[in-house]
Amino acid sequence: MPGANSSENGNELAIVTESVECGGTERVVQALAERFPRAPIVANHFTGLMGPDPDATPWAIRARLLPSGRKKSHFLAPLYGRRLAAAPMEPARVVLVLAAGGWSLAATVPPGGRLVTYCTGPPPALYGEAHLYLRAEPAPLRPVMRAAVPALRAYNRRLMRRPHRVIANSAFSACTIECVYGRSAEVVHPPVRTHFFTPAARRQRHFLAVGRLVPQKQLDDLVDAFRDLDETLVIAGRGPWMDRLRARAPANVRLAGWVDDSALRELYRRSRALVCPSVEEFGIVMAEAHACGIPVIAPGAGGALEIVDDPATGLLLDRTDARSIASAVRAIARRPLSPEACRASAERFAEDRFLARMEEVISEEIAAGRAPRGGSGPSRS
């Protein structure tokens, strides 16, 4: 995109994200950072979230990291928002905010700038899954945090009035954005590195789960599902529930911890299926597994409905309790699915498609910012 990275008045684009960790949002930031190498990046920095390999998040090297403690809690969103709001933003025509917990929407927008959010939808910690997120908090604080949810929702809704434009990562997210905030959102699916995550002939040895080891991923039910199965489960990821899951896991469940992308690709390729027990707004690991020719077992809800074609590329479950997951695992083991169909599904989400559309969005917002103004820009309330 001509002029995408700089202008006589400063950068055309600045990027704001909520944390530095290994997850779906970080895939988005990395793709944008590579396409727009001069765009400044600002992020809250939680020291306990980064993986053991600094190269896992190379964009963080050039980012301005705002100290925000060791552990991230979605119930402290106003605190993190204030830290972002207090951080001066380099001149930019467009500030692109990656919003999951929502507090990144508090970022300062330079005068005349346009605020665009790439959003996963209303924060699950405040809408629908508070009970799961509270399980990660100290027991004495849970009643206070539960009581704070209505005020946190009000804060979140105020912030969501600020963006000039809302982009959703899935149709599921766009629908929830409309329902909760009354705002329409265009859908741009996240970037899947289909050039990197590719099929390869391997002996398929295990079932696989990939994600942060936190309560909302519902990995305890997945571990229980394999207790009476004659199959192996590998769980790749790190997080505060590592010890809890390890203590719960039977002998046929292995916790691999954090793995780099090359090791993750090999785990995908050697898998009989990826199992995702949680409802995801999109679920980029499901698309990465498909890119490697691997089927997916997931809830019949959320982003899985846009990724998995049941029964061609996986199985979508009405329930994700241990018994239902075990039944799906047995079904996949008896009837392997087509790697070609899985790969074709993933190619719909190729990284180049994401970047091409985001370039168009940024160009459109730059043009809108140069047009005569009829309003005062994003609200600071």
How would you describe this protein?
The chain is of the alpha/beta class and 381 residues long. It has two domains: 202 residues, Rossmann fold, CATH 3.40.50.2000; 143 residues, Glycogen Phosphorylase B (Rossmann fold, 3-Layer(aba) Sandwich), CATH 3.40.50. Helix content is 35%, strand content 17%. It has a seven-stranded parallel β-sheet with strand order 3-2-1-4-5-6-7, sandwiched between helices. Helix 6 links the parallel strand 8 and strand 9. The model has no long low-confidence stretch (mean pLDDT 92).
CATH topology of the largest domain: Rossmann fold
Gap between N and C termini? 33 Å
* Helix/strand order, N-terminal first: EHEEHEEHHEHEEHEHEHEHEHEHHH
Structural class: alpha/beta
Low-confidence stretches: none
**Count of structural domains:** 2
- Total beta-strand segments: 13
Strand content: 15-25%
- CATH class term of the largest domain: Alpha Beta
Computed Rg: 21 Å
Broad shape? globular
Instruction: Bin the helical content.
Output: 25-40%
Number of helices: 13
Task: Give the mean pLDDT.
Answer: 92
Strand order of the largest sheet: 3-2-1-4-5-6-7
What is the CATH architecture annotation of the largest domain? 3-Layer(aba) Sandwich
- Biggest beta sheet attributes: 7 strands, parallel
Any idea what the CATH superfamily of the largest domain is called?
Glycogen Phosphorylase B
